[in-house]
Amino acid sequence: MAAEKTSSSEGSGEAARSASVPETQVFLNVYDLTPVNNYMYWFGFGIFHSGIQVHGMEYGFGAHDFPASGVFEVEPKTCPGFIYRCSIPLGRIRMPPAEFRTFLENMASEYHGDTYHLISKNCNHFSDDLCRRLTGKHIPGWVNRLAGLGALCSCLLPESLQVTTVKQLPEYHEVSEDENESQCTITAHEPTESDDGDQEKHLLSPTAGITNVSFISETQTHTK
Question: Can 112 be counted among the known catalytic residues?
């Protein structure tokens, strides 16, 4: 009986601590990789980048040449090299920033920059995985539909579009505190001459040479 009471008391304590943690809204921030998306979007297609916004920062997955974390953070809706499209609310979680930091570092060990692949393991796969682990839900299917089609028809895609790399050594910084925003809007963007010239660079190396992208350090596993 005493053991049952102790177990019940511990469970009640955990529930009380969980209830005392404020809820945090989780968003999916979606970006266009090309202005052509303005036309393709209405047909259910498009080439998109995405990141998960939680606790006031946005987290995504990018490529580099090293067997280390490719998970990075930026200010929400400002991922360099892409055209912000909209934010989609995905649900709320009760996870303190410090706990989320540990959670993200553990997850970063599964997403090394040198494993990035546009078809099989891209930024949208990371967003979907992170969303599923946090909320139990998946991101909207249209965000990563091109990768699904590419998996069936990868032979039709050039190798340069199947594997992306960023010639940049990751630098690691700390995760910030909480901030929430819930509006979904499409931002207007007028194509310029530089759009076409930079398109390949944006698609193949979205974080190359960018200084305000901070990679998240991964949890180090020690083997005996």
Answer: no
